[in-house]
Amino acid sequence: MEEKIRIPKVIFKCSRIYDEQWKKINEFLEKGEYPSLEETEKYREEIDPLWREKEVEVLTELSRATGLSWEMKYISCYVVGKAFPFPAFSDPLTISVYKREKDLFIDTLVHELIHQLFIQPKNFEKLNERSKILGEKYPKESLRTRIHISLHAVHKHIYLQLFNESRLKRDIERAQSKVDYKRAWDIVSKEGYENIIKEMKIKKKDLEKYFNS
Questions:
Q1: Could you give the strand order of the β-sheet that contains 93-96, starting from the edge strand earlier in sequence?
Q2: What is the rounded CA–CA span in Å between residue 183 and residue 152?
Q3: 198 CB-near residues (< 8 Å, 6+ apart)
Q4: What predicted TM-score, i.e. pTM, was given to this entire model?
């Protein structure tokens, strides 16, 4: 009998103290109007049921496809009005309000959750050796590009398995203005996302031989 995959529950939070810091940064950088905490809280309430529709499928498939395990029961995701220089980051998991496209919030969340999966302590140890070999394989690529090669490969799998190709294309198009992300997508296209995911599961003693074959 196949062992049941343990998955966490994502808890969306709005923190007045945390949000206030982003508001101050927004004002300092003169980035325009910042949503009120009440608006952000309302948005959080709207996002929650949209995510619950896919949560179990997405988190289960992330673990199944990569062979990596979730080590925590809960993951806090802070929803803020705006965050810079990126609209989201993985630790602490923080995502800005996407007013027009709520499905973009979901896609961004999946991206950051893949980061979260990779940095779980036991997983980080497993992937660290592969990261070193990736550095040797792509010596001219930035660290951010190398990190996102595996991430984009896994995300492409999720798009095609659980969402749709149009959302995948939107993600790739949005990455065109970000050099590191674009390069990572280019490499995924060239190498094949299935092959990259397969490499993640190879034991580290066989990994160098696999890359050099």
A1: 9-13, 74-80, 93-96, 88-90
A2: 11
A3: none
A4: 0.91
What are the tens digits of pLDDT across the range 76-124? 999 999 988 778 999 999 999 987 788 999 999 999 999 999 988 888 7
Taking only the tens place, the pLDDT of each residue in 72-82 is 899 999 999 99
HSE-up of residue 10 (Cα within 13 Å, Cβ side): 32
Residues 6 or more apart in contact with residue 81 via CB below 8 angstroms: 19, 22, 23, 26, 34, 35, 36, 37, 39, 40, 96, 97
DSSP symbols for 136-191 = HHSTTS-HHHHHHHHHHHHHHHHHHHHS-HHHHHHHHHHHTTSHHHHHHHHHHHHH
